[in-house]
């Protein structure tokens, strides 16, 4: 009965609070908005229903994370309200009983939480009821999906969260502890997904330790096919069941613990150090009463007189005193602990930051500043949350302690507490940044790297990021000053912060409208901050103006005294509006208007202001207007003459030159279309023969010239152009860093005029196409599209002659051989010219580079790199030498006499291989393969891959249809494999393949097209190379090389018809014996996956040195179609059986037996005779067959006793 | 009904001896616990109210004369005590946005009054008794200090408790409220133990028929107020002196209290024999008892034999 009363009372009490209803409404609104803006589109793109169990559950788990705030508020209040209102002596002395009290309170909080979460399915239903552009996406309504999501995801999450935060609050007797608990649960969830699962790859563990079940759902989302997503129901089974079970158990245990430890007792406040105080120190023993009375009477009645001053110096002192007090308050509470934890966490996870794909990188400062300031990781949502939270604590501190009347009556000016508290909070932030710097430097030192660039740390962390934090702090403090209740203030501040972070998702792109935002900044070792710092500063100053205005508002509306209603506060505000305040307000307004105007001038007048939606529309309009010119006969570029003047410090470049255009079609051409880029100023377009410009569309940059005399087939004409790139001001999106004082890099084809309709401008994304009213179009053209093989766009061969001028002290790189270097008029000039035609893609670079020279036969190898990034230069040169040697022997000659690797700005690791000049981002130079515990020279392999592209991609340029990636990327990786093997040996290659195979571990759906139509990353970069490698092992290295050489010789000149994967397949078929044709077909013609496993391996010694190994294996082969439907096909394949000796030197053991056997579908037993004592044996030990789960191929061999002589027929050897 | 406190001791973590071997026997009726701030009164009250535990000692609540003869160990049987306990703490808060009526009903259920009709009756009765009936539907956040105090009294009196513990109840009340409160307390039933802890001597003299004086965790005196006053008859002397003479008077006599009267100093002195010229004999009152005890001249620590009542 008491339990019921406690429960009912609590339920009624909390339901009457405004915040409860606010939660419901806000959750409803956010879910509704998210569904319509983001999730319907996601379902459409993914090809499954919106009403699917998967998507509903995903949305539910996301809202569960948001609803942690709800749990914290409800449960924290239920647990700690009695102590906070100091009503606990009344309640605790009633015979209510721990179970009734705690149970009733908790249950009420949980039930209310669960009821609030009903807002989610309601919002989802509403979202489906209102009209959408593509109604078929919604799908049939299935109550099981909604009910399942609610009862299996939302409610257990609410239970676990409520239990945890309730216990924290009840045992610590502070409602604030519940918010801390909510933050911990939030981070546990996100960390288990992002770090444990995604980064460390331990999905199994992550799924268990994730309190909200997010990781489980993410995995399902990745690995289910679209068909499964639409139809399957997420039920309480498998990982989800385990996760719910574990966390239900944890919640119950925690509640039980609370029940055990909770006492209806008076709490003697004992700080952390209370226990340590020595008795005589803290003794409050009063002296003898008589003595005390006597001494009291003897004490002088008068107190010493002191001087009191109230001038500016005092005000400053008061402000500093308040600032210091606020600082100490935060540091000595949970905030200080959080700071300490963050620091320690950073030191511990530091090495993880400097890693790519598990390969260690040199821990340069730039990586740490990047991680600490730009990372969207949740690691750094901690600080904004801390700011918002402590802003509230500081503003409400006196009122909550009951001290406000005394403090408000003290002779302290109104602005002093506001500024003082803000300063205190700022000091905490400064300390945080300093700690972060120290932690990062410690990590660097621990990794043996001592180039701490303190200036960079200071500029980024104490300059840019601290500025961001301070702006947020102003906002948070002001919100709390103006809001009438602390929790309302928290909610507003959090919503504001959410808006600031996710503004683009809500459709607001303009940085002038989102508090604190800026167009982004970038830093790289090569180019420094480039040009990105100045726009950032302008924006921040603009927002500082707003911050000042907010501060003025806060000062006016500061609560002093007991009058808290709106009207009294406005009255006070009017009285406080003195001249200095007015002055400050006017200054703020002036700053806003002037800076805002300046920024606006830059972003909207000097540059065009475009949102991504605007850009998409522009591209769609281009297609609608000019798409009809696709495929009409146009001349192709045969030669380009350029004079390039790069002005790095002015961030401008001039490109002047001529094309020699040739009519390579069979028809006469009477009009030439010239398309110019929007980012540059193209002037002086002219032909060497009379031509009239009949259309000059400056919006789209499309011009049509009609030639007076038609251009006959084989004839040529010249086009002269003058292109200027110059940045004026800065745009909203972020500044174009193509030409910068150090580290200029731009691709000529981006800026130079293009001939004919530019199909590359079309929209590819199906959703964008739909939104803009374009007909859907497959991402790649079909393999059967014969006409596509005759489309040489992008495969033309040109001769290039370019003179590049740049500032003195910089090295400029261009296409072809370097003919001459000279100085003129204080500038440095380089003359580049190609000896043989190259594919028409090349870039220009200019920076203060260092150059490393090497040679292979008569080819000059140059590594052009940023001084200071030279760790891998030797390795790269060696890889180029080995690759040139290997590929020219295997496939065909390298047609040029120089090859370069050029470093350019970018923190990523990607490389790109246009002809001759391979470019790589700065991040690549940081690879520290020497420290890689797996002992694989990854950088070496990657360079070999890029050099291979000179054959596969730059010489053999495939037609732009499905499966093109097979010819370029898969063959590049396959070629690189042989370089690795030849240089480092077969074992190293095995280790390297093991790294590549880790891609199988990431959950993904096996639905897909056959390799011949390969179009996604996984097919091109992993499955393709593995298929080629398997073929090599089955058919033979020389045979495959023969096929590839023939393919190369036929298509190296890229004359139409261009090569497709079918050509490769035909060549492979010619070298594959009949007995293995099935394998070729399985690997390439259908999307085949094998599932082989060895269940048991045993061996018995038959005679000296000979063992009979018995393997129990099972095998299965399935073909998976594009929506994920699996069909088993019968298997009677050759599969390698292997037995290995004991492992040595940390590597696998010696292969004792490695031969092909026929394996059929299902379970079977295979017996082989092996020379030598086997330790491990199994089916397909080298994972040649494409099997997602490759760990179960090998088993430990259980050795059994010798058989008796009667069985074996040989005399057993006595030991 | 009586409360037997035996050898109670409690030391706080910071070394303070809050209670030092306290032994008291508290019978039915009003018992006053008098002492200065920091004497240990609140600690003792909280221990009796089951909110704290002593380090040593025992407390037995017995239903000796009438009733079942049951003896409850207050320290170990907290739940049983709470069933018959009414506690009005020195300071407490209330939920600000609940009405007095609703919260009192809530407490009534928590105190075991399950029957709805009975509950309504007693809630109404208590609200009338504490003069809160007219404002019973208003939210407690809007109550004044005195009204909140009266609400606390109503909560304490719920369920006809047999043990009522009142900690410094009149400290913040105006004279009229104080009189009302004391009247209310005096009207409590005969079969109840009421312990009133205070540092206002008048409260004890007006209301209590037994009292104890406690200082620094030790009981200095346990007696009936009237008897103590009677014992002090003829030993309290008064003299009006200028302030400058205070020191010399203190040196020569046992000054127990000093007051101001119209700017001049009035000293009370304890002396078995007439102290001399200038001193008048005065009627001793409880305040003099208090000061004398505090000064150490007077005081008979509890002479109760420490017998364990075998029951």
Characterize the structure shown.
The complex is a heterodimer of chains A (1215) and B (311). By secondary structure, chain A is an alpha+beta fold. Chain B has 311 residues and is α/β, with parallel strands linked by helices. In chain B, strands 6-7-8-3-9-10 form a six-stranded mixed sheet, sandwiched between helices. A four-stranded antiparallel sheet of chain B has the order 2-1-4-5. The interface between A and B is large, with 43 and 48 residues.
Jot down its keywords:
heterodimer; A: alpha+beta; eight-stranded mixed sheet; 49% helix; B: 311 residues; six-stranded mixed sheet; four-stranded antiparallel sheet; 14 strands; globular; disordered C terminus
Largest sheet of chain A, in brief, is: 8 strands, mixed
Mean pLDDT of chain A: 87
Helicity level of chain A, as a percent range? 40-55%
Low-confidence stretches of chain B: 302-311
Number of strands of chain B: 14
Question: Overall 3D geometry of chain B?
Answer: globular
Shape of chain A: globular
Major sheet of chain B: 6 strands, mixed
List the helices and strands and how they pair.
The complex is a heterodimer of chains A (1215) and B (311).
Chain A: H1 2-15, H2 18-46, H3 53-66, H4 68-84, H5 88-92, H6 98-116, H7 119-129, H8 143-172, H9 176-199, H10 203-209, H11 214-223, H12 226-231, H13 238-261, H14 279-282, H15 289-298, H16 312-331, H17 334-353, E1 355-356, E2 359-360, H18 365-374, H19 382-401, H20 404-408, H21 415-446, H22 454-482, H23 486-502, H24 533-557, H25 566-576, H26 579-606, H27 612-626, E3 636-647, E4 652-662, E5 669-675, E6 681-687, E7 691-697, E8 702-711, E9 716-726, E10 744-747, H28 748-751, E11 754-755, H29 766-771, H30 786-789, E12 797-807, E13 811-813, E14 817-824, E15 827-833, E16 838-839, E17 843-847, E18 850-856, E19 859-865, H31 873-890, E20 898-904, E21 911-912, E22 917-921, H32 922-925, H33 938-949, H34 964-984, H35 986-997, H36 1017-1035, H37 1037-1051, H38 1061-1071, H39 1077-1085, E23 1088-1103, E24 1106-1120, E25 1126-1129, E26 1132-1140, E27 1151-1160, E28 1162-1171, E29 1176-1179, E30 1194-1200, H40 1205-1208
Parallel strand pairs in A: 3-12, 19-20, 20-22, 23-30
Antiparallel strand pairs in A: 1-2, 3-4, 4-9, 5-8, 5-11, 6-9, 7-8, 10-17, 12-15, 12-16, 13-17, 14-15, 18-19, 21-22, 23-24, 24-25, 24-28, 26-27, 26-29, 29-30
Helix pairs in contact in A: 1-6, 2-3, 2-7, 3-8, 3-11, 4-6, 4-8, 4-9, 6-8, 8-9, 8-13, 9-10, 10-11, 10-13, 16-21, 17-21, 18-22, 19-21, 19-22, 19-23, 21-22, 22-23, 22-24, 24-26, 31-33, 31-34, 33-34, 34-35, 34-36, 36-37, 37-38
Chain B: E1 2-11, E2 17-26, E3 29-34, H1 41-48, E4 56-62, E5 71-73, H2 78-83, E6 85-88, H3 100-110, H4 116-129, H5 145-157, E7 163-167, H6 175-186, E8 193-198, H7 201-207, E9 210-215, E10 218-223, H8 225-231, E11 236-241, H9 246-252, E12 254-261, E13 264-270, E14 280-281, H10 286-295
Parallel strand pairs in B: 3-8, 3-9, 6-7, 7-8
Antiparallel strand pairs in B: 1-2, 1-4, 4-5, 9-10, 11-13, 11-14, 12-13
């Amino acid at each position: 009965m008491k339990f019921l009363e406690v429960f009912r009372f609590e339920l009624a009490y909390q339901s009457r609070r405004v915040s409860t209803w606010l939660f419901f409404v806000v959750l409803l609104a956010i879910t509704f908005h998210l569904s319509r803006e983001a999730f319907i589109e996601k379902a459409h793109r993914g090809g499954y229903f919106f009403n699917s169990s998967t998507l509903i559950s995903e949305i539910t788990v996301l809202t569960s994370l948001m609803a942690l705030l709800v749990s914290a508020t409800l449960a924290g209040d239920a647990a700690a309200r009695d102590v906070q209102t100091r009503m606990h002596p009344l309640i605790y002395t009633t015979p209510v009983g721990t179970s009734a009290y705690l149970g009733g309170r908790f249950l009420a909080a949980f039930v209310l939480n669960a009821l609030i979460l009903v807002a989610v399915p309601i919002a989802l239903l509403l979202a489906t009821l209102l009209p959408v552009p593509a109604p078929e996406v919604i799908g049939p309504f299935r109550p099981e999906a909604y009910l399942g999501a609610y009862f299996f995801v939302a409610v257990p999450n609410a239970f676990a969260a409520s239990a945890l935060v309730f216990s924290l609050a009840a045992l610590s007797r502070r409602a604030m502890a519940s918010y801390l608990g909510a933050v911990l649960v939030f981070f546990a969830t996100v960390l288990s997904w992002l770090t444990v699962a995604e980064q460390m790859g331990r999905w199994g563990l992550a799924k268990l330790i994730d309190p909200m079940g997010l990781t489980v759902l993410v995995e399902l989302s990745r690995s289910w096919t679209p068909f499964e997503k639409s139809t399957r129901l997420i039920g309480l089974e498998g990982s989800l069941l385990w996760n719910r079970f574990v966390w239900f158990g944890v919640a119950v245990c925690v509640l039980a613990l609370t029940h055990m430890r909770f006492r209806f007792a008076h709490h003697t406040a004992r700080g952390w150090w209370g226990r340590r105080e020595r008795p005589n120190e803290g003794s409050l023993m009063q002296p003898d009463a008589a003595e005390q009375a006597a001494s009291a009477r003897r004490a002088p009645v008068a107190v010493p007189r002191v001087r009191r001053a109230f001038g500016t110096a005092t005000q400053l002192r008061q402000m500093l005193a308040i600032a210091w007090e606020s600082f100490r308050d935060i540091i000595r509470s949970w905030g200080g602990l959080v700071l300490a934890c963050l620091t320690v966490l950073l030191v511990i996870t530091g090495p993880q930051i400097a890693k790519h794909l598990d390969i260690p990188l040199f821990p340069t400062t730039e990586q740490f500043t990047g991680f600490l300031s730009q990372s969207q990781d949740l690691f750094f949502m901690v600080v904004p949350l801390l700011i918002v939270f402590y802003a509230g604590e500081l503003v409400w501190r006196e009122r909550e302690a009951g001290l406000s009347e005394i403090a408000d009556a003290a002779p302290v000016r109104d602005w002093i507490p506001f500024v003082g508290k803000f300063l205190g909070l700022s000091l905490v932030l400064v300390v945080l940044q300093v700690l972060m710097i120290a932690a990062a430097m410690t990590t660097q030192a621990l990794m043996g790297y001592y180039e701490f660039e303190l200036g960079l740390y200071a500029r980024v962390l104490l300059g840019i990021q601290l500025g961001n934090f301070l702006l947020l702090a102003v906002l948070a403090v002001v919100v709390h000053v103006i809001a009438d209740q602390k929790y309302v203030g928290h909610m507003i501040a959090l919503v504001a912060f959410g808006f600031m972070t996710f503004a683009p998702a809500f459709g607001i792109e303009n940085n002038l409208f989102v508090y604190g935002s800026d167009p982004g900044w970038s830093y790289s070792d090569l180019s420094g901050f480039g040009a990105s710092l100045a726009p950032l500063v302008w924006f921040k100053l603009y927002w500082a103006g707003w911050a000042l205005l907010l501060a003025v508002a806060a000062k006016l509306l500061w609560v002093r005294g007991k009058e808290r209603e709106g009207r009294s506060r406005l009255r006070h505000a009017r009285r406080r509006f003195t001249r200095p305040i007015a002055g400050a307000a006017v200054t703020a307004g002036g700053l806003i208007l002037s800076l805002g105007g300046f920024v606006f001038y830059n972003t909207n007048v000097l540059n065009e202001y475009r949102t991504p939606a605007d850009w998409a529309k522009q591209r769609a309009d281009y297609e609608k207007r000019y798409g009809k010119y696709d495929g009409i006969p146009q001349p192709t570029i045969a030669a380009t003459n350029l004079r390039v003047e790069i002005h790095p410090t002015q961030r401008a470049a001039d490109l002047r030159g001529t094309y020699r255009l040739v009519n390579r079609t069979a028809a006469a051409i009477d009009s030439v279309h010239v398309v110019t880029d929007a980012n540059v100023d193209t002037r002086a377009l002219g032909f060497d023969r009379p031509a009239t410009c009949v259309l000059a569309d400056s919006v789209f940059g499309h011009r049509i010239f009609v030639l007076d005399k038609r251009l006959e087939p084989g004839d040529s004409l010249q086009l002269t152009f003058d292109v200027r790139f110059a940045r004026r001001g800065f745009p909203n999106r972020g500044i174009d860093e193509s030409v910068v004082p150090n580290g200029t890099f731009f691709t000529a084809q981006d800026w130079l005029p293009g001939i004919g309709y530019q199909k590359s401008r079309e929209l590819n994304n199906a959703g964008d196409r739909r939104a803009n009213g374009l007909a859907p179009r497959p991402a790649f053209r079909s393999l059967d599209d014969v006409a596509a093989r005759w489309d040489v766009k992008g495969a033309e061969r040109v001769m290039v002659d370019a003179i590049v001028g740049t500032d003195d002290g910089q090295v400029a790189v261009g296409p072809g051989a370097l003919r001459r270097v000279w100085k003129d008029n204080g500038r440095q000039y380089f003359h580049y010219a190609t000896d043989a035609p190259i594919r028409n893609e090349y870039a220009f670079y200019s920076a203060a580079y260092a150059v490393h020279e090497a040679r292979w036969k008569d080819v000059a190898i140059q590594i052009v790199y940023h001084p200071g990034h030279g760790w891998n230069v030797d390795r790269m040169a060696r890889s180029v030498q080995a690759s040139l040697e290997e590929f020219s022997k295997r496939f065909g000659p390298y047609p040029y006499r120089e090859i370069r690797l050029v470093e350019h700005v970018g923190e990523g690791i990607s490389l790109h291989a246009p002809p001759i000049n391979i470019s790589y981002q700065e991040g690549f130079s940081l690879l520290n393969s020497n420290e890689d515990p797996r002992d694989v020279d990854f950088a070496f392999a990657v360079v070999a891959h890029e050099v291979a592209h000179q054959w596969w991609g730059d010489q053999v340029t495939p037609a732009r249809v499905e499966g093109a990636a097979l010819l370029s990327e898969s063959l590049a990786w396959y070629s690189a494999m042989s370089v690795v093997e030849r240089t480092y040996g077969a074992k190293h290659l095995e280790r390297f393949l093991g790294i590549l195979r880790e891609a199988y571990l990431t959950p993904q759906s096996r639905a897909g097209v056959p390799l011949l139509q390969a179009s996604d990353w996984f097919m091109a970069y992993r499955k393709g190379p593995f298929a080629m490698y398997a073929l090599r092992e089955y058919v033979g290295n020389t045979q495959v090389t023969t096929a590839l050489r023939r393919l190369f010789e036929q298509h190296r000149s890229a004359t139409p018809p261009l090569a497709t994967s079918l050509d490769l397949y035909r060549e492979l078929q010619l070298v594959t014996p009949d007995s293995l044709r099935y394998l070729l077909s399985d690997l390439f013609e259908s999307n085949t996956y094998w599932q082989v496993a060895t269940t048991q391996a045993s061996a018995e010694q038959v005679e000296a040195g000979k063992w009979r190994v018995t393997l129990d294996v099972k095998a299965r082969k399935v073909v998976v179609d594009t929506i994920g439907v699996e069909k088993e096909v019968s298997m009677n394949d050759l599969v390698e059986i292997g037995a290995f000796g004991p492992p040595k030197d940390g590597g696998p053991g010696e292969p004792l037996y490695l031969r092909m056997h026929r394996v059929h579908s299902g379970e079977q037993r295979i017996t082989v005779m092996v020379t030598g004592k086997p330790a491990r044996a199994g089916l397909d030990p080298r994972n040649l067959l494409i099997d997602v789960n490759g760990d179960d191929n090998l088993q430990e061999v259980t050795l059994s006793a010798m058989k008796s002589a009667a069985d074996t027929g040989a005399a057993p050897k006595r030991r | 009904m009586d409360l037997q406190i035996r050898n109670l001791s409690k030391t706080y973590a910071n070394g303070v001896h809050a209670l030092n071997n306290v032994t008291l026997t508290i019978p039915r009726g009003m018992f006053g616990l008098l002492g200065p701030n920091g004497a240990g009164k609140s600690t003792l009250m909280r221990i009796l109210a089951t909110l704290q535990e002593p380090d040593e000692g025992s407390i037995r609540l017995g239903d000796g004369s009438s009733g079942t003869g049951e003896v409850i160990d207050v320290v170990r049987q907290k739940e049983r005590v709470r069933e018959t306990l009414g506690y009005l703490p020195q300071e407490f808060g209330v939920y600000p946005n609940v009405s007095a009526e609703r919260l009192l009903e809530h407490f009534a259920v928590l105190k075991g009054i399950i029957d709805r009709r009975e509950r309504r009756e007693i809630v109404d009765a208590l609200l009338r008794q504490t003069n809160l009936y007219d404002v019973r539907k208003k939210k407690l956040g809007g109550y004044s200090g005195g009204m909140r105090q009266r609400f606390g009294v109503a909560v304490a009196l719920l369920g006809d408790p047999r043990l009522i513990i009142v900690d410094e109840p009149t400290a913040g009340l105006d004279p009229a409220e104080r009189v009302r409160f004391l009247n209310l307390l005096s009207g409590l039933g005969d079969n109840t133990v009421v312990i009133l802890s205070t540092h206002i001597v008048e409260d004890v003299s007006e209301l209590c028929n037994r009292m104890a004086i406690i200082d620094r965790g030790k009981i200095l005196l346990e007696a009936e107020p009237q008897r103590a006053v009677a014992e002090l008859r003829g030993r309290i002397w008064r003299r009006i002196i200028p302030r400058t003479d205070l020191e010399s008077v203190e040196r020569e006599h046992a000054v127990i209290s000093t007051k101001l009267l119209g700017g001049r100093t009035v000293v009370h002195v304890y002396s078995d024999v007439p102290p001399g010229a200038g001193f008048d004999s005065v009627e001793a009152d409880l305040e003099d008892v208090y000061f004398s005890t505090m000064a150490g001249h007077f005081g008979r620590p509890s002479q109760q034999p420490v017998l364990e009542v075998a029951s």
